[in-house]
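BACKBONE GEOMETRY TOKENS:
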Amino acid sequence: MAERTRLARVREELQAALEAIIQDLGGPAGTRVVLAEPTEAGRADLATSVAFGLARTLRKSPRDIAAELCARFPGHPDVEALGAEGPGYVNVWLRTEFLSGVVDDVLSDPQAFGRSDEGRNARVLLEFVSANPTGPLNVVSGRAAALGDSLARLLNFTGWRADKEFYLNNAGVQILKLGQAVDLRIRELLGEEVESTWPEGVYPGAYVRDAARAYLDERGANAPRSHEILGAFAADFFTDRQREVLERFRVHFDSWAEERRFRESGAAEAVVRALRQSGHLDERDGAVWFRSTAFGDDKDRVVVKSDGSLTYIVPDAAYHWDKVRRGYDRLIDLLGPDHHGYVSRITAILEALSGQGSRLYVLIVQLVRLMRDGEAVRMSKRGGEFVELAELLDEAGVDAARFFFLERAPETPLDFDLGLALLSTQANPVFYVQYAGARIRSILRQAAHETVADGPRSLLAAPEERALLWDLASFPDVVARAARELSPHWLTRYLVELAGHFHGFYRQHRVLGGDPDTVRARIDLVRAVLAVLETATDLIGVEIPQTM
């Protein structure tokens, strides 16, 4: 069981105290009190609207109920005061000594602050990106890459053992079509005119020329050019390019799984045999059907077509079955919005094979729209049908790309504003966050001779200082929520707020110079802020430069 955080502990104790008072007043059994931050900054540290739901039962106005809750409150060593406000809110103010204690919590072990054992060392496999090796990665794959990598960092930080895997769909019809496209581009490079006779359904992107040119350079114009050979060569070629751009994007996979292996090893056929032996298959109209409706799917699925070939779901099922047999307690797949129907069928097969369908959780990652000057950016500079991730990194940089990709919840479509990503102003959130870290580092370099620990924490009582203390105390809860909900956007939101509060503090207060006790206390405060900034940005794969 993860240790309760500073804020979680006091919140739970306050909620329990208020719930006991409500029972003494004759309130409904089981009434729950929810204490949260007020929507208006500065009004209080915590507030609850529980009095509004008690008015009818207690036959009193919410205002009178709130006043009575405050009057009966027995006190708490970490609470400065309770007060009834407005039409019936109960506001809570925490003691500065309690909040400022978070500075010591952070500085006692900066790299451990915010960690938890919530995952209890369970093994989880994150499969993401898994783009077809038929061309370069696009910006949608970039969003999945940033999201999956950040989730792995978060899960490992909160007590899971998370591994990252890329599944290569390097077999099947799409690879033959890729080989056909490469053959046409080779002919073009050798002087033939091919555009006017380009077959429908064959990859038209100019990027295929890169694979064609590499094949000619490596094997020569007289080398065999079957679609199978060319497709396999090009798939490996584009996989290498995908690895390179992912590494540049700070995304490193622990393992790469190949569809080709699951087909060639017989693992896919083993799925069909296992389903047949367990009585889950029927033969209809010359095809073999899996009765997936018995496991919650909306209709049964073909696994072997009438020509004897396997449908694409079979090697995918073999792959997921392999994940279970490798001992993972939880499987997380990040898939695109066109995969909603895929979820029920792969879960059904996994349940039929192993009774472990519940281990699989699929996170649908919505599309990305690149914007420039209010207009959508639609085409690649290289003449393809998409914008390459490498092009985005060239223009916006790795830090901005990762931060912007993570600004919205995964299930929310994302507009990526290229113009905003290039701004060096407060309007650009990643610049704003990085500038806060760089500014603190500058302060600490200047204060190297004054960095004496244990400045009196009671001096950190100004509103701007309390805002920073609250942010620091909230960090473990933000991390836990982001990991629990599989949504790093809570971290990007937190970072912008923390940076904003730091910049506001810096404008209002001198860190260096003046009363020595105040200087020491503020130096420790900004050291703690920097430590949390560094941890939070590392969890989303963004770096803070030394200077800006």
